[in-house]
Amino acid sequence: MKILLIEDDMSLVNGLVFALKKQGYELDVARTSLEADALWADGKYDLVVLDVSLPDGSGFDICQKIRRISKVPLIFLTAADEETDVIMGLDMGGDDYITKPFKLAIFLSRVNAILRRSSQFGQAGAQLELGGIRISLLTGTVYRDGEKLDLTASEYKLLRLFMENPGQVLSAEQLLGRLWDCDERYVDNNTLTVYIRRLRTKIEEDPSRPRRIVTVRGMGYKWDASDRGVK
User: Fold this and answer.
1) What is the pLDDT of residues 21-75, one digit of tens each?
2) How far is CA 181 from the centre of its chain?
3) Residue ranges per domain, the chain?
4) Is 231 helix (H, G, I), strand (E, B) or coil?
5) What is the 3-state secondary structure (H, E, C) of 160-208?
6) Helix-strand-coil split of the chain, %, nearest 5
7) May I ask the CATH class of domain 127-223?
């Protein structure tokens, strides 16, 4: 598997490159947004790891460019640990948000977990279809009543989890664990609530009265297997 690392701190880059190559990964390194654009245009990657603060721009801008054309897993690696930054990074399509300083073993564990999940999500079956929502598993595209939806990578994974487990109540802890495999203090129930709300705006006819992803008070959320009133 090949990783694109976008980071301008060379002492950190050297350590991460050594550790990731030791794990068997191939790497390309960009130290600026301009270098990242050039590498992304010419290469194919299984994971992108990027800093938020770069000499010539923002990692958030790079993430938005990538998300317009790709669902490649993406990890923010940054010293910007404010809650608003974390939520924004995840909400715009980041799959994980690791703040500096961090332990190398934990970083590697989370890289391995994201790549493992990405591989699993790409396997098996041709499509899922429930309540007017259809997921093409081979291409990662989602349709509502035949109209293509624009979902972030995390929204896609969350939707797929629900549709693979219709009628089953999934707790916040289960959903967070399956999606991010992390214990960061800011990746919590509030973060999940943001994702549920965003996803509902895209798949529900009336997001304020959801009929597909419903809340089970005190327990979590579930995909309503009865599809009541949903075409």
Assistant:
1) 999 999 999 999 999 999 998 778 999 999 999 999 999 999 999 988 887 889 9
2) 11
3) 2-121, 127-223
4) coil
5) HHHHHCCCCCECHHHHHHHHHCCCCCCCCHHHHHHHHHHHHHHHCCCCC
6) 40, 20, 35
7) mainly alpha
